[in-house]
Amino acid sequence: MRLILNWLLSAAALLGVAYIYPGVAVASFGSAMLAALVIGLLNMLVRPILVVLTIPVTLLTLGLFLFVINALMFWAASGLLSGFHVNGFWAALIGSLLYSALGVLIDAVLKRG
Known about the structure:
The protein is mainly alpha-helical. It has one domain. It has 6 helices and 2 strands; from the N terminus they run αβααααβα. A two-stranded antiparallel sheet has the order 1-2.
């Protein structure tokens, strides 16, 4: 039940990012749910591989390259879906930062309840 609630709230957060930032567009709540699922799957399957492959760059940048990896996952999800669009890398970087911040809030609320 908590997983479904987290998924629904993540989709709402994605709609919130699209509302706050014009570089991210989501067509509908269904598209947001699908995008949240794809972002979650990319973060679970592809992100760990990228993190391991980019350890030297991540160490050199004192961990800041992880923001680039998050943006790439966000941007990749928009490339895979038709109802979710991100206007380039910088929009993906800002959108992923906003989405991550809202995700932290969602996690905090779900841990309390």
